[in-house]
Design a protein that fits this description.
With about 130 residues, the chain is mainly beta. It has one domain: Metal Binding Protein, Guanine Nucleotide Exchange Factor, Chain A. The chain is about 5% helix and about 40% strand. The longest helix is centred in the first third of the chain and has 7 residues.
Length: about 130
């Protein structure tokens, strides 16, 4: 599926070919901390199927639990997370942050990783009072 996306302020835009069936949730503590959320939703794509169309993201390099270096791409202006990749030689996998996609509603997670770090209350979300707007 051809997708487009970008940061909150619009300074960075990208396009990619992404398979919605590969959408996943990561519950690792790094994703929790880096997203400010209980988990992160990602769709992996080949670097060959990803193209920045405007702007240049800032890169933060973190060391994963495996010892591998992971590049975290985000907008230096608005702080919106965009994608992550490795320091490996191309072609690399790009983990697009589903929230950065214009077509985010088409990307329903099919798998979960690092569930041992998942927050206990996530299974009870349906029981919490909900409102359509604030």
């Amino acid at each position: 599926m051809q997708v487009t996306g970008g940061c909150h302020c619009g300074a960075i835009r990208f396009e990619a070919e992404a398979d919605p069936e590969r959408t996943r949730i990561c519950h690792c503590s790094d994703c929790q901390r880096l997203s400010g959320s209980p988990f992160r939703v990602v769709v992996p794509v080949s670097e060959n199927d990803f193209r920045l169309t405007s702007g240049t993201p800032r890169i933060y390099r973190k060391t994963a639990a495996s010892g591998a270096i992971r590049q975290q791409a985000f907008c230096a202006d608005c702080g919106a997370p965009l994608y992550a990749t490795s320091d490996d030689a191309p072609p690399r996998k790009i983990g697009i942050r589903v929230g950065a996609l214009d077509q985010s509603g088409s990307f329903v997670p099919k798998r979960q990783f690092w569930t041992r770090s998942a927050l206990d209350w996530l299974g009870d979300l349906a029981k919490i009072e909900a409102f359509d707007e604030q």
